[in-house]
Amino acid sequence: MTALNDRRSRHLGASRRELFESLERGALKGLPATPFEFAEWKQCRVGLDYHVEIDKHYYSVPYALLKEKLWARKTASTVELFHNGRRVAAHVRSSSNRKPTTVREHMPSSHRRYAEWTPERLQRKAAEIGPRTAILVEVIIAERTHPEQGFRSCIGILRFAKSYGAERLEAACARALDIGARSYTSVKSILKNNLDRQRPAEATDGPAITHPNIRGPGYFH
């Protein structure tokens, strides 16, 4: 390779080494401090709980950006959020589905921005639909570290009354409570699959079937 690089080209009038030294060496830059990392971009909108959904996980942004459109840059290890070209939040990427990652500084000192949606108002709206809906909303809010983190689920559940009716929503909430499925996605699945029209089978004290070949407890005495 040394001889090849030092050989002068009749076409160029110089060797490869001479061309490298005169043209290219001065333009070389050092390698970057960190290796290249593949990233994907996605546009998203901030919810009422000042979180955005990225791959079924919720990441917080400053509460002043409610309902704003953001760009999310996600890599294998991080999620960065940008508003008008400026980075407003950065999180370690999480694989926990339907759970929030919240930076305390992103929360409002007082929840004035939530004056129209408070836990009390959500529970009043739910009570207008029915007692089981009110209980489900109360449970969802109580299970969150910060009540506002449950607003997205509760508001989504209450909106089902417009498309499915209050009676079906009340039945769906009752079924969700019975089976321990306390989430927006669970209520949505119950309504979509018409499971609210069915009641869970009640347990019986007797045998599951009656048949002459079943010996029963007296057989062994």
Tell me what you see in this structure.
It is a single chain. The protein is of the alpha+beta class and 221 residues long. Among the domains are: 40-106, no CATH class; 116-197, no CATH class. It is built from seven helices and nine strands; from the N terminus they run αββαβββββββααααα. Strands 3-6-7-8 form a four-stranded antiparallel beta sheet, with no helix packed on it. A hairpin with a 3-residue loop joins strand 6 (69-74) and strand 7. Helix 4 packs antiparallel against helix 5. It is elongated, with a radius of gyration of 31 Å.
Order of the strands making up the biggest sheet = 3-6-7-8
Low-pLDDT sequence parts: none
Largest sheet: 4 strands, antiparallel
Number of helices: 7
User: Which class of secondary structure composition applies to the elements?
Assistant: alpha+beta
How would the blueprint of this fold be written?
Layout: H1 2-6, E1 8-9, E2 14-15, H2 16-24, E3 40-45, E4 51-54, E5 57-60, E6 69-74, E7 78-83, E8 86-92, E9 100-101, H3 119-129, H4 131-143, H5 151-164, H6 166-178, H7 184-192
Helix pairs in contact: 3-4, 3-5, 4-5, 4-6, 5-6, 5-7, 6-7
Summarize the structure.
This protein has 221 residues and is of the alpha+beta class. The protein has helices at 2-6, 16-24, 119-129, 131-143, 151-164, 166-178, 184-192; strands at residues 8-9, 14-15, 40-45, 51-54, 57-60, 69-74, 78-83, 86-92, 100-101.
